[in-house]
Automatic annotation (TrEMBL):
This is Histidine phosphatase family protein. Residues 1-23 are annotated as: Disordered. The lineage of its organism: Bacteria, Bacillati, Bacillota, Bacilli, Bacillales. It comes from the Bacteria. It holds the Pfam family His_Phos_1. Residues 9-23 have a biased composition (Basic and acidic residues). Coiled coil: none annotated.
Amino acid sequence: MHTNIYFVRHGESPKTEGNERTRGLTENGFVDALHIAELLKNEGIDSIISGPYQRTMFTIEGLARH
């Protein structure tokens, strides 16, 4: 038995001042997130761990739904 660990950095996020926890994704960032979901959806991922920031959760949300 073996374990694969995939590290995914969040999609592109706007470079604005403000609360780091609530900063979301740009339009390109959402495209990045769709691309990640497509790349990894057939990898048999059992668990997904994400940081608490919105941009990280938005990035992995599509994959988590698969």
